[in-house]
């Protein structure tokens, strides 16, 4: 799944509701922005260790 959002003048963007619901993201949850060769990768911060192990 892929969805497009815009970056505001303040550098903010909104995670689409469908993705928030699918991944059970709640207000206050932390996400990590990772700079990779292909672009930007966003992952729930709690899942980072699972990804790399």
From TrEMBL:
SMART domains: SpoVT_AbrB. It comes from the Archaea. One of its GO terms (molecular function) is DNA binding. Pfam families: MazE_antitoxin. Residues 1-23 are annotated as: Disordered. InterPro entries: SpoVT-AbrB_dom, SpoVT-AbrB_sf. Residues 2-48 form the SpoVT-AbrB domain. Residues 1-15 have a biased composition (Polar residues). This is AbrB family transcriptional regulator. It comes from Halanaeroarchaeum sulfurireducens. The lineage of its organism: Archaea, Methanobacteriati, Methanobacteriota, Stenosarchaea group, Halobacteria.
